[in-house]
Amino acid sequence: MIKVIAIDDHPLMLRSIVEILSLERDITVIGQSDRAQNLLQLIREHPEANVLILDPGMPFGEPFNPLTEIPLLKQRFPDVHVLVLSGEDNPLIVRKVIEAGTKGYLLKDDNLTLRLAEAVRTVARRQRFYSPRILTYLFESPLDTCLNDSELGILRLLSEGYSNKGIARALNLSEKTVRNMLPAIYLKLGIEHGNREASNLRVIAANKAREMMS
Predict the structure, then answer these.
(1) Which pLDDT score, from 0 to 100, does residue 136 have?
(2) Nearest to 183 by CA among 201, 171, 156
(3) What is the CATH number of domain 142-213?
(4) CATH 3.40.50.2300 fits 2-136, yes or no
(5) Does the predicted model carry a pTM greater than 0.70?
(6) Which residues of 36-61 are buried (b: 16+ CB within 10 A; e: fewer)?
(7) Are 121 and 91 in contact (CB under 8 A)?
(8) Domain segments of the chain: what residues?
(9) Which ranges of the chain have pLDDT less than 70?
(10) Less crowded by CB within 10 Å, the N or C end of the chain?
(11) Which residues sit opposite 5 in a β-bridge?
């Protein structure tokens, strides 16, 4: 069972989070609050929590800088993984928040009914989950000049170790679409198909993506 703490200063959003996750058999919300000041208290009261859903833009009573506070949360509570749920989509801010150590970044105007539970499961597995819009500008790299937005999204998730099924779920595509787009991605990256097995092509593409995004 995945155990979640949810904090959001908008009561309606908090209620939506709880209601959506309550429909999942493998996820339970064990702590919730619409007061950001209760963050540390909730984590202390529920050390068994796996995922913390957090909006770093909430008023915390004193300046809350996610660039410094999220790494501290990770140090003090290493078993709790942070899933950011935010309305902020400024690329510069998004990148910095992710670099601070969050496992996932989900936008509030995304389809939460479709994505929230999957994001929680992915983050609980210590993998990364991003809204599709976040994926399109998460990193500036030479990849941006040769791949379209859909291809970039697929490649970034592939480089994180996602299966075709996982990529399809994260990007709201069919598994067949993902499978059919991979050859074009390999071609644009200059990867020769030849007689290589599909698994080898994935590894080569993932390594090339990491190299170009570094």
Answers:
(1) 67
(2) 201
(3) 1.10.10.10
(4) yes
(5) no
(6) beebeebbeebeebbbbbbbbbbebe
(7) no
(8) 2-136, 142-213
(9) 59-67, 136-146, 192-198, 210-214
(10) C
(11) 31, 52
